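Ex. 9. Protein: 2-dehydropantoate 2-reductase.
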Amino acid sequence: MSVSFTVRITFMAQYQHVIVGSGLIGSFVGGIIGQSARVSFIGRPNWLGRLAEGISLTDYAGNKAEYKANAGQCLKELPAKIERSIIWLTVKNTALEEMLARLQPVIAPDCIIVCCQNGLGATALTRKYLPGIRVLHGIVGCNVVWDESLKQLQKSTEGEFYLEQPEDLAPEVTRALCAVQHKLLMLHWHKGIEAVAWAKLQLNLANSINAIVNQPVRTMLLDRACRQVIAALMDELLAVTAACNIRLPRLTRVPARYLPAVLRLPDWLFKRLASAMLHIEPTARSSMWWDLQAGRVTEIDYLNGAVAEQGALSGVACPINKSVADLVKSLETSALVAARRPLDGNTLKFKLHLE
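Predicted structure tokens for 2-dehydropantoate 2-reductase:
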């Protein structure tokens, strides 16, 4: 049975908000929007159940908000029709094409889509599938982790919400999009959103290393050899962006071009100068690690794979990103991935021929 979600358009009709893909990021963003506007969620039953029971939203600075959805806001399937809505598209890249095909027959021309995927290429693919719909590029610049015991979504790293700013955006659309503005996730408008996407990609390159070494993120960052590998991946990305004349904005306290140097610091100095990177739940792991554990295809093609691909197009060799992408792909097809032992950074460097 289909669910009706039709909003009649009148002169003063407000935009509704729909989170398509309510997982970690979608539920966090939706919970923030829900502080000031009505929002509906489309996602997996486990996340819909958590939202219906009520969740806390927090950050490492101590800010906090509460959110609880009612039954009518939690949908397991796409509605029969979506009109006059801001659609926050938070599915992973690996599920994006399928979701876009499902959206085609139900989305009305007066909707706005905000693509919130990691890596590169999601916005272009969305515009290809939905040519009559206004599509904006949004970037969630932080990591979010779930604490089951506390029923809590925590913003575990620095970073805010960065949103493409077209010159012709209608005032009522701008006002509706500002619902994502909150002390837990500040909204920053950007005309050069591509550069922001590359800057976020630089940070996301560590996701693959976390998946490979099979360690919590904090443990990985306390291993200098792991940090050296991440720094090498970032060096290649910076070479690609330089070749493409892309100047990366600053998303963290450390400017993008200095991040590799900070990661290479001795442990004692890294702990003192980069303490913000370590403000993270001790057991937190990257979403790519969770995908591997669950036997799902990862987003590696949109992260390290995208760096290697753009490097090839730009005449910049990216052998380390290519090797990391290949290693993750081999883990995707391994029957023993869930039972593997953790790796230390020096062993990882050996596997990647960096020693």
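Check your answer against this statement. The radius of gyration is 20 Å.
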